[in-house]
Design brief:
Blueprint: E1 5-8, H1 17-24, H2 29-36, H3 52-64, E2 69-72, H4 77-92, E3 97-100, H5 113-121, E4 126-130, H6 137-145, E5 149-153, E6 167-169, H7 185-200, H8 203-212, H9 214-223, H10 230-244, H11 249-258, H12 266-283, H13 287-293, H14 298-331, E7 339-343, H15 351-362, E8 366-372, E9 375-381, H16 388-394, E10 401-404, E11 408-414, H17 418-432, H18 435-438, E12 441-444, E13 446-447, H19 455-461, E14 476-489, E15 495-500, E16 506-508, E17 523-535, E18 538-550
Parallel strand pairs: 1-12, 2-3, 2-4, 4-5, 5-6, 7-8, 13-14, 16-18
Antiparallel strand pairs: 8-9, 9-11, 10-11, 14-15, 14-17, 15-16, 17-18
């Protein structure tokens, strides 16, 4: 694995850590104040999104004439929460509504012609997509031919022509003028709810629904790893407490199963709650997760949450198997600027996770595919500065379809095109990657003095929370620290626990192999993030290692 290059944003220990971090994030004036005090008043007008008025009008028409509506979702956490959110609003408004989420393996991603036919056979007149649909031109045309109408809500980048839908609500349309493009699929669905709820619910009920819905919005937003800035920051900052105090039995049961702390942060969602929701779509079908989030009480919810925990454990085993499989293939491409691996035994539900693992190990854009007969499909993950969605668009002649985001995308293609695609992507990345992009970079906010490491300092840092993509928890450094003891943790000794003189304990997840390079009495430089460790009523700081090296 490539070791990162350390880059200090400040060479000196800070006097005022909050002001230093705000300056490093480029925040000043009114923008600084808005960041420190996120308010729901900062949310943008939902009618600023393209076609929002058309979407609202179409749903009002369906309500007036009691036309059957289907919410057509996606099988990941963003898609599941989007589906539950919009379905719940329409149900509360007394509309004829059901939902449909494709099966990852049997149906594939998004709105398809086959999916449209399934929904049509159930008698639906109007389909509202959430977290998908922007590239579903053929499926929308099929729906129109069957006498159905389509409202698309999505956040993926528009690559070709807009589908011929009644409305296409998407901040990433080419003609979009909405001030913030990076909202998740559930964020777009929430904006639709913000526009629609006051028109189909009594005023008090609309306000209550939108406030309580922030638990779903927070789950989906954090899970989709969109940047926690602008509207996303506002939604998550207000939604975290809603998740912790949720009235939804399904989320309560999920928190119980995950043994998450009641004061939730994005890490709890990203590493404990969201993986369980995602496990349904990865290993079986997303309907289990939908049933959980719609469960009427804990008696119904708890068995479903327990099942998701079991599926997540199965997912972990399958991920480890496929990572080993992919790693053997990736080693032969270690010198290439784009790694493309494929295998018939790759599990379709974990390819994105495997691609992330390979990408982090080699610090190169990575595409992992499964071969199924004459066809192949897979998921890709990228490094900063290289746009996967644009790369797939440049080589669409080799694909049957593909798209997504700059950092995460997917594609499917004839198996005969695998080697030509690999060669094309390697050449594409070689042309666009710079030497700086090829070297992993660890940005360190500042070196610290050991005496600053206390709960008061942590409280100052937390003024910038919630942390996540786009607003990462700051990384600090301690230089020349004396090692007191070293030990490994975990069943396979995968993790590292390091005791340093006069410091809180340091934990290095996945760093167990580096224990043999550390000796008591030696001195090391460590890069770390800070977190609160609450155990048996006690609270203390803990250092989360990002990297370490012998002191010079």
């Amino acid at each position: 694995m490539l070791r990162p290059q350390w880059h200090f944003l400040s060479e000196e220990p800070p006097t005022d850590i909050v002001e230093l971090l705000l300056a490093q994030r480029g925040l000043a004036g009114a923008e600084r104040d808005a960041f420190l005090h996120p308010s729901l008043d900062q949310l943008h007008d939902p009618f600023g999104l393209p076609d929002m008025e058309r979407a609202v009008a179409k749903l009002e028409w369906a309500r007036t004439w009691q036309q059957p509506v289907t919410v057509f979702g996606d099988y990941d956490c963003d898609g599941v929460t989007s589906t539950v959110l919009l379905y719940s609003l329409l149900k509360q408004a007394g509309m004829q509504v059901d939902y449909h989420v494709p099966h990852r393996i049997d149906d594939g991603y998004g709105l398809t012609e086959a999916g449209v036919e399934k929904v049509h056979a159930r008698g639906s007149r109007l389909i509202v997509t959430v977290d998908n649909g922007i590239s579903a031109n053929a499926a929308v045309a099929k729906a129109n031919a069957l006498g159905m109408e389509i409202v698309i809500t999505d956040h993926h980048k528009q690559e070709g022509e807009l589908p011929p839908a009644a409305a296409v609500v998407n901040p990433n349309r080419k003609d979009n003028e909405y001030p913030f493009r990076a909202i998740a699929g559930v964020g777009v669905a929430y904006k639709l709810c913000c526009a629609l709820a006051p028109r189909i619910l009594p005023a008090g009920d609309a306000d209550a629904f939108l406030a309580e819905a922030l638990d779903l919005v927070t789950l989906g937003t954090v899970a989709d790893m969109v940047p926690l800035v602008d509207e996303n920051r506002v939604l998550v900052a207000h939604g975290l407490s809603r998740v912790a105090a949720t009235k939804r039995a399904g989320i309560q049961a999920l928190i119980e199963q995950a043994r998450a702390k009641r004061e939730l942060d994005p890490a709890d969602i990203g590493f404990k709650l969201a993986p369980r929701i995602n496990a349904a779509g990865r290993m079986e079908g997303a309907d289990i997760a939908l049933e959980l989030l719609l469960a009427p009480d804990l008696a119904a919810a708890r068995p479903l949450a327990e099942k998701l925990t079991g599926l997540n454990a199965k997912r972990q085993v399958e991920t480890a198997r496929c990572e080993e499989l992919a790693l053997d293939l990736a080693e032969a491409q270690a010198g290439d600027d784009f790694i493309v691996v494929w295998h018939p035994e790759m599990h379709a539900g974990v390819m994105g996770l495997v691609a992330s693992h390979i990408m982090r190990r080699f610090h190169r854009p990575t595409l992992v595919l499964r071969i199924d007969g004459d066809a192949a499909g897979g998921s890709a993950r990228s490094i900063p500065g290289y746009d996967l969605s644009a790369a797939f668009d440049r080589h669409k002649a080799l694909l049957d379809g593909g798209g997504g985001h700059a950092m995460a995308a997917g594609c499917h293609l004839p198996a005969a095109n695998l080697e030509p695609l690999r060669a094309a992507l390697v050449a594409d990345a070689s042309e666009r990657l710079t030497d700086e992009m090829r070297q992993p970079l660890l940005e360190i906010a500042a070196p610290l003095e050991v005496g600053r490491l206390n709960l008061q300092f942590m409280a100052q840092l937390e003024r910038l929370a919630p942390f996540g993509q786009g607003n990462l928890a700051p990384t600090f450094a301690l230089l020349g620290q004396e090692v007191q003891s070293v030990r490994t943790m975990g069943r396979d000794s995968d993790h590292l626990r390091l005791s340093l003189a006069r410091c809180p304990d340091a934990i290095g997840w996945g760093m167990g192999e580096r224990a043999e390079t550390l000796l008591p009495g030696g001195r090391v430089d460590i890069a770390f993030r800070l977190e609160r460790n609450r155990y048996k009523g006690r609270e203390q700081l803990q250092l989360l290692l990002q990297d370490l090296k012998p002191s010079e």
